[in-house]
Specification:
Layout (H helix, E strand, L loop, with lengths): L8 H9 L7 E3 L6 E6 L3 E6 L5 H16 L7 E5 L9 E5 L4 E2 L10 H14 L24 H10 L5 H17 L8 E3 L8 E3 L8 E4 L6 E3 L13 H12 L6 H4 L1 H16 L18 H11 L11
Antiparallel strand pairs: 1-2, 2-3, 3-5, 4-5, 6-8, 7-10, 8-9
Helix pairs in contact: 3-6, 4-5, 4-8, 5-8, 8-9
């Protein structure tokens, strides 16, 4: 957009190609990786901020058709242009999802039914077969738990003066108790969205009950331990999300990994909360709930101070 609030020639040309006049192009809420523009009432244009983010958009173009075919509620891909002729980077045009993102509604911890719906959507996503026909290309296999081994992390924070010795012993003991509940061996690898956070969950704005209209932004998609999927969501929303997930998956009592869901998810939340202390610089203006350095730690404190249901209560 130029200084007068009008789209530049490139944006106007892209809009015209989709039957949208230049005056119907306007900026909308954008993320770290992409700038976003509304093209009239029905379409959204996403343009990477820099070339460094272009690979994520290429990945999204591969992932979106696959996850839609799996039945996941996400907006359809209308156009993906990797020619770089008009804006210097790839761009994507998507159908617009009705509603607002959950972050705009404030306290996401109260949106239990939305999180149950999200859990059911994730169950569909995690059934996408690895390496099968139609599996998206360019999606990395990621997340080695040893890369962020909790005890090494605690020891490093102690050595750097970020923790006192008593707190370090207490955290080591907590990680030990969680490990006792988690089976050995490698966790399964499934296709993840990778950033199930409030700003990526589109919902009806009310009045009346809030419901999920779609999941957006697949730039962090990966093949990884499914418990990682629940670590980008504020912890108060996770119990309802797991309820929806288990409901959609059916009875999995015979699977030791499924019986250990809560411990696995909490270990990720706690590990990532402590890892944020290794680089505690604030990021003013970021919408993601984890941007403030202490956000995860305070989220864990808030969750356990609210008398969570079992088995969560027994994990503290």
């Amino acid at each position: 957009m130029n200084r007068d609030g009008q789209p530049g020639a490139a944006l106007a040309a892209i809009a015209a190609r989709h039957g949208v006049p230049a005056e119907k192009v306007r900026p909308t809420v954008s993320g770290v990786a992409n700038r976003a523009y509304l093209l009239g009432p029905d379409l959204v244009l996403r343009v990477p901020r820099t070339e460094a983010f272009a690979a994520d958009l290429v990945k999204e173009a591969a992932v979106i058709p696959v996850v839609r075919a799996a039945g996941v509620r996400t907006p359809a891909l209308v156009t993906f242009d990797d020619s770089r002729k008009e804006v210097g980077v790839p761009y994507m045009v998507l159908e617009r999802v009705p509603g607002v993102d959950l972050a705009e509604l404030g306290d996401s911890g109260g949106a239990e039914e939305v999180f149950r719906e999200v859990g059911r959507e994730l169950a569909r996503l995690h059934r996408v077969p690895p390496g099968g026909v139609g599996a998206p290309a360019g999606v990395p296999v990621e997340y080695d738990p040893e890369a962020e081994a909790p005890h090494r992390l605690v020891a490093g924070l102690l050595a750097d003066g970020m923790l006192d010795a008593e707190a370090a012993r207490w955290l080591d003991g907590w990680f030990d108790r969680l490990a006792e509940r988690i089976p050995g061996g490698a966790a399964p690898r499934v296709l993840l969205h990778g950033d199930i956070a409030p700003q990526n969950l589109m919902v009806t704005p009310g009045p009346g009950p809030v419901s999920l209209t779609g999941i957006v932004d697949w730039g962090d998609a990966m093949w990884a331990d499914p418990a990682v999927e629940f670590a980008k969501t504020p912890l108060p929303g996770v119990p309802a999300m797991l309820d929806g997930y288990r409901e959609a998956c059916g009875d999995a009592d015979g699977d030791s990994y499924d019986r250990a869901w809560e411990a696995r998810v909490l270990r990720h939340h706690l590990t990532w909360a402590l890892a944020r202390l290794t680089n505690p610089a604030p990021v003013p203006g970021e919408r993601h709930w984890t941007a403030p350095p202490a956000s995860r730690l305070l989220g864990i404190l808030r969750f356990f101070a609210s008398s969570p249901p079992e088995p969560w209560r027994g994990l503290a």
